[in-house]
Amino acid sequence: MLITTVPSLLITLVIFTVAGLNYHTASSEHIHQFAASLKDTFHITPWLLVVPVVTGVMIAFRLPSVITLFLSSILAGVFLIVFQPHLLPQIVGTDVLDFATKFKGLMISLYGNTNIDTGSVELNDLVSTSGMGGMLNTIWLIICAMCFGGVMTGSGMLQSITSVILKWVRGRTGAVASTVSSGLFFNLCTADQYLSIILTGNMFKELYRKLGLESRLLSRTVEDAVTVTSPLIPWNTCGMTQATVLGVPTLVYLPYCFFNLLSPLVSITVAAIGYKIYQQKTE
Question: Would the pLDDT of 54 be above 90?
Fold first, then answer.
């Protein structure tokens, strides 16, 4: 992954640096007002970094995602009660801070709508959430997308369409370019990242073996073609999730996703150059 990820990140950083130098930021007064509203509303302390650090450690130890999410939510809830208790009455809509208010405020922050008045319109929009309830519409769409992808796969329609591509693949560059194209195609048709990864990998693994290419090249290409591009498709499960969580339509943030747009192109370029691409070792 480093072979294609690092060049894509470097190019992205250069683009953002150049764009940032030519972008006129808001006035310093507006920034100070925003920072003051943030400081007056929340109790900001380095101890709050414990939650993301612990979450990162659990991910690094490859704990099951359900356990990681559950423990992270519990820890975040504890930190909410310890460091931000003054926000709980506002979440509940009362002036009394007792055990019932703390419990109800914690539960609402996990599953329901939370609207906190910070004195800044921009900050209000940033900290307002809809909890798990706000994700239900996205979950329905994900279920529908997975059902649709399963029907397309089980009926053999996707395999029939993409088999035409395999007839024209001859060399290393063609194999990588076809993998990228098929990954994007599956992302568009199945509307689910995981289905696209499985389908693309299974479809090309025999071709890579016949060409004598290492399986890790296929894995790397699938990641560059499917994983990083799925958030760019509005009806893909990743695109829908990002748009729901961020509150920004997919096509609005798409032009700024340079890394996502560059990764497939860099993958094909590296294959054409032949850098760090080895033939499969025979026993």
Answer: yes
